[in-house]
Amino acid sequence: MRSEDLRGIRAALAQGQAEHIGVVEHPRLALRRIPPDAVQFQVILGSLLGDGHLIGGLGDRRLRIAHRRERFDYVRWKYERLGPFAAEAPRARDLMVGFDTVTHPLFDDLAQLFHEGACGEDTPPAVMRLLRPLGLAVWLADLGRIDLCADRLARTQAVAVAS
Questions:
Q1: 104, 31 in Cβ contact below 8 A?
Q2: Cα(122)–Cα(112) distance, rounded to whole angstroms?
Q3: If 77 and its partner were Cys, which of 36, 97, 122, 150 is the partner (CB 3.0–4.6 Å)?
Q4: Beta-strand relationship, 96-100 and 91-93
Q5: Cα separation, 45 vs 127, whole angstroms
Q6: Residue 120 above 70 pLDDT?
């Protein structure tokens, strides 16, 4: 925000022309209103098709990412892609390494999409329509079918692959 804008706001408050309201919100709650970008969405979708799990109930769902310890670099790559949606840095638990995301309404929507295909279909058609090359790559990397060389994937390439 520019300094003249701040001066104008302060002046309006001082003259009683504007109402000052105190809004204090926990950052994790604020993140619930931010939609993931295309890369983040594809990492989420590919993870759910692979080894990722939704945990929690309606209104409190989050994504849990967990892989074997030797896949730490891959987990770190997912953590870096998900950015502010990651609740904490990856940490080791027993033979696994992983992290949880913050809760987000998107996970309630995705749970519904995946639940619709739970009656006999392997992957719901609605999910397949949302999948892009990056999501497919994450899915296959989760299954161990390919090795995702994240350090070679430039940011511009990641955006192109996500669309």
A1: yes
A2: 15
A3: 150
A4: antiparallel
A5: 8
A6: no
Indicate the SS3 state at residue 143: coil
Q: What is the pTM of this model?
A: 0.75
Cα torsion angle, 4, 5, 6, 9, sign? positive
* Residues 18-56 pLDDT 10s: 555 555 556 666 677 789 999 999 999 999 999 999 999
Spell out the CATH class of 26-162: alpha beta
β-bridge partners, 93: 96
**Residue 97 and residue 69 in contact, taking contact as beta carbons nearer than 8 Å:** yes
Asked whether 85 and 40 are in contact (CB, 8 A), the reply is yes
Q: What is the 3-state secondary structure (H, E, C) of 33-94?
A: HCCCCHHHHHHHHHHHHCCCEEECCCCCCEEEEEEEHHHHHHHHHHHHHHHHHECCCCEEEC
DSSP string, 119-156: SS-SS-HHHHHH--HHHHHHHHHHTTSS---GGGS-HH
* Measured distance CA(147)–CA(109) in Å, rounded: 29
